[in-house]
């Protein structure tokens, strides 16, 4: 699959052949769903917690006699039925992460790249570099390209470009080693440099 290579000034500077094995796969939403779910599950902190009966501050004395009072038997004021008592089967500190086979993760990344290419939302850039770290200059170039929600993937991130882009809303910059399904799908347009294309194809073929 051939596509044009453009510069940040929106000039066509050449052509590139994209590998069908990476950018031309059929879009499978089930694979994308599994990958995004796996990523977001790993991201959860899992620090939510409620107290069990052994953690509640309070007396260990039996509230009242077992028999003769006409009330239901009770062994502790820290039980769940009393105000300030324990929570039964409440959340505990744990990891929400689960396994996803390496082959599925690889397929999901290729599918995410292919979905952007199929939607016409994939742009190949000559190089992602900035002469100065000024945000205003990069915003002007992005508006010339008609980009508002965009993910840039480069082989290695140039310092000036990273500084210029980090304060722009809905603009993310990642090295190709950090390319992932969730970040690709959450932005409207995917912009990949020629270096990143070569590195991703070598990694995913």
From TrEMBL:
Residue segments, region Disordered: 47-73
Gene3D superfamilies, alphabetized: 3.40.1370.10
Secretion signal span: none
GO BP, one annotated term: translation
Record-level Gene Ontology MF annotations: rRNA binding; structural constituent of ribosome
GO CC annotations on file: ribonucleoprotein complex; ribosome
Keyword line: Ribonucleoprotein, Ribosomal protein, RNA-binding, rRNA-binding
Family recorded in the similarity comment: Belongs to the universal ribosomal protein uL4 family.
Protein purpose: Forms part of the polypeptide exit tunnel.
Summary of subunit composition and partner proteins: Part of the 50S ribosomal subunit.
PANTHER family: 50S RIBOSOMAL PROTEIN L4 (PTHR10746), LARGE RIBOSOMAL SUBUNIT PROTEIN UL4M (PTHR10746:SF6)
Name of protein: Large ribosomal subunit protein uL4
Gene: rplD
